[in-house]
Automatic annotation (TrEMBL):
This is Acyl-CoA reductase. PANTHER family: ALDEHYDE DEHYDROGENASE-RELATED. PROSITE patterns: ALDEHYDE_DEHYDR_CYS, ALDEHYDE_DEHYDR_GLU. It holds the Pfam family Aldedh. SUPFAM superfamilies: ALDH-like.
């Protein structure tokens, strides 16, 4: 078995070291989760929602400590880590309300004397969730809350931020006198693949890279060839993105800059699957956008993530991630792009940073426009029309989100209609609302829905009930 290590991205210190659990240990956990699923799924959705609401107080009471641990493990600025916790609780509460409002209520079909029918949503069983490091609380709660609300139990792998797995176990493992509702797993990639291929689970949720998604698909295919009772699993893939924003000729420029730079690109140091990674600006605003975006980027402070004044923490993958971004910037410059600001690699403490970098005069075929960039680099391309912008936005193999900034509703609706992304933003970006489904197409996912009433339905199995009441008594 391998050893799981987590390195503080800023200090370089090892902050977690533990041997990967064996498949036998994980199988024992899954058996306990399977047993707990029977009692948990028998509760009403209102009872489950109320118990989950009570469990969320665990996070409120430990807010600062949880945020500090996240900062140590993934390098997220401590203020941002605390804000993520606050919004995670808010997101979970919204989902509890949606569940209580009847998202998974039975669907009754008008009957006849000899027919009564309904469709019921029932628990999947045991859900295996593989969660990433970039939004350790958000991504973990998205699947966890939908699974628990719909009566399933959860095995959570959070190897890159193990403190989050531990806190989720402490908060959700025992509710309403039922134990083993959520257990965490500290395991390596090999053990994770074995879980999918051989263990008694019912659904897999993976949030991560396209490469990781392909590995999950391979494991699912291997499972289908095994002689086990449930060879075909349902699954959810939430993968990467190369998301684009279009600044139309009638956009509110100040708002567009604030949104695309501070929220769209630089939030979480640019390490977001739905970050704005390409900007297309109508030629009317191009130079003005660049000037304002430069000022916005230069206002950020990178460095020690424990310092409350830091807005950009280190990149999680440290020097390799910085070098990759630097190579994309250099390649773009070599091929005619102009560096408006940034572009340099800077050493701070024991790690490297790349300055917030704004690139102008880019072309659609440059690597920086075709690659999912996880970091503070923003390429900006000039366009002359809505049609050109739409064509450029849709040229990506990814399909997570897209955005338009405009004052014209008809222009916005035309943009929405032509997008092939799971989410389309109008006058905002990089913003998840739990009332709306989160979906990825193309290389961004398999089209499965998380969050929203549809996410609760997606995390349930359907059962058709077909009754001939002629032979039933009224008892």
């Amino acid at each position: 078995m391998s050893n799981i290590e987590v390195i503080n991205p800023f200090s370089g210190d090892v902050v977690f070291s533990e041997e990967s659990e064996s498949l036998e240990e994980i199988s024992s956990k899954i058996s306990r989760l399977r047993a707990a699923n029977i009692a948990w799924s028998s509760l009403s959705v209102h009872a489950r929602a109320e118990l989950i609401r009570n469990a969320l107080s665990y996070f409120r009471e430990r807010r600062d400590g949880i945020a500090s641990a996240i900062t140590s493990e993934v390098g997220k600025p401590v203020r941002a880590a605390a804000e993520e916790l606050d919004f995670m609780i808010e997101r979970a509460l919204v989902m509890c309300t949606l569940a209580e409002q009847g998202a998974t209520s039975p669907y009754a079909i008008a009957g006849r004397d000899d027919f009564q029918g309904r469709m019921e949503y029932v628990s999947k069983g045991v859900v295996y969730i593989i969660s990433p490091w970039n939004y350790p609380l958000f991504c973990a709660i998205n699947g966890t809350i939908c699974a628990l609300l719909t009566g399933s139990t959860v095995l959570l792998k959070h190897t890159t931020a193990p403190s989050v797995g531990r806190h989720f176990r402490n908060a959700f493992n025992q509710m309403g006198g039922i134990e083993n509702l959520l257990l965490d797993a500290v395991i390596d990639y090999r053990a994770s693949a074995q879980i999918i291929e051989t263990c008694d689970i019912n659904h897999v949720i993976f949030t991560g890279s396209v490469q990781g998604g392909r590995a999950i698909q391979t494991s699912l295919a291997n499972r289908a060839n095994n002689d086990i009772s449930n060879p075909f699993l349902t699954y959810t893939l939430e993968l990467g993105g190369n998301d684009a924003a279009y600044i139309a000729e009638d956009a509110d420029l100040a708002h567009a800059v604030e949104s695309t730079v501070n929220i769209g690109r630089l939030h979480n140091s640019g390490q977001s699957c739905c970050a704005v990674k390409r900007v297309f600006v109508h030629e009317k605003h191009y130079e003005s956008y660049l000037a304002a975006a430069k000022d916005a980027m230069n206002a950020h402070r990178f460095g020690d993530p424990t310092d409350p004044s830091t807005t950009l923490g280190p990149l999680f993958s440290r020097e390799p991630a910085v070098r990759m971004l630097k190579s994309l910037v250099d390649d773009a410059q070599k091929n005619g792009a102009r560096i408006v600001c940034g572009g340099h690699v800077v050493s701070v403490g024991k790690t490297l940073f790349i300055e917030p970098t704004l690139l102008a005069d880019v072309c659609a075929d440059m690597n920086v426009m075709r690659t999912e960039t996880f970091g503070p680099v923003l390429p900006v391309m000039r366009v002359s029309s809505d049609d050109e912008a739409i064509r450029m936005v849709c040229s990506s193999l990814y399909g997570l989100t897209s955005a338009i900034f405009t004052r014209c509703r008809s222009r916005a609706e035309q943009f929405i209609t032509q997008m092939n992304t799971g989410t389309v933003f109008v006058n905002r970006c990089n913003f998840v609302d739990a009332r709306l489904g989160w979906i990825g197409y193309g290389q961004s996912g398999n089209g499965a829905v998380s969050l929203s009433p549809f996410g609760l339905q997606s995390m349930s199995n359907l059962k058709s009930v077909n009754i001939d009441p002629t032979y039933l008594s009224q008892n």
